[in-house]
Design goal:
Oligomer: single chain
Radius of gyration: 36 Å
Number of helices: 4
Helix content: 55-70%
Order of helices and strands: HHEEEHHE
Number of strands: 4
Structural class: alpha+beta
C-alpha cells in the first residue's frame, strides 16, 4: 500500500512531467512554425529595419611619444600596374596620351619616355609594373 507522502510525491512528479512535456511540445511547435515561415518576410520586417551598413575610412595620422615627438606617421604608397593583355586597343589609344601626361607631371620625366615604354609593352602584351612607388 502506498502512503500519503508517496502519493503526493507521485502527483507532483506527474504534474512536473506533464508541464515539461507541454513546454517541450510548445518549443517543438514553434520550431515547426519557424521552419515553414516566409524567410523573406522576416528579413524585410526585422533584419532590414534594424541593420545598416556604413563605410568608414580608417583613421590615419601620427603616433606621438609622451614628450610630443612623432614616433610614426602614415604615408600612403601605391604601386602602379598596367596589364596590356586586357586593355582593348581603342581604350588604349584614347587614353594613353592623358596617362602619359599625368605620369610626366607626377614623376618629372618627359611624356615621350612614358609613351615609348607603354607602346613597347603594348606590342609585347605584357604586364608593366612601375617599380617607383607613388606617395600621395
Amino acid at each position: 500500500m502506498i502512503t500519503i507522502t508517496k502519493e503526493k510525491t507521485l502527483r507532483w512528479g506527474y504534474l512536473f512531467a506533464t508541464v515539461a512535456l507541454c513546454v517541450f511540445v510548445m518549443f517543438l511547435g514553434r520550431i515547426v512554425v519557424l521552419q515553414n515561415t516566409n524567410v523573406q518576410e522576416i528579413k524585410d520586417d526585422y533584419i532590414n529595419k534594424n541593420y545598416r551598413t556604413a563605410t568608414l575610412k580608417a583613421a590615419r595620422g601620427n603616433l606621438f611619444a609622451s614628450d610630443g615627438s612623432i614616433l610614426a606617421t602614415t604615408v600612403m604608397r601605391y604601386d602602379i600596374y598596367l596589364d596590356f593583355k586586357t586593355i582593348k586597343d581603342t581604350v588604349y589609344s584614347n587614353n594613353i596620351g592623358a596617362l602619359s601626361d599625368s605620369l610626366s607631371k607626377m614623376f618629372g620625366k618627359p611624356r615621350a619616355e612614358f609613351r615609348k615604354r607603354f607602346d613597347e609593352q603594348k606590342r609585347k602584351k605584357s604586364i608593366l609594373f612601375f617599380s617607383k612607388r607613388v606617395r600621395l
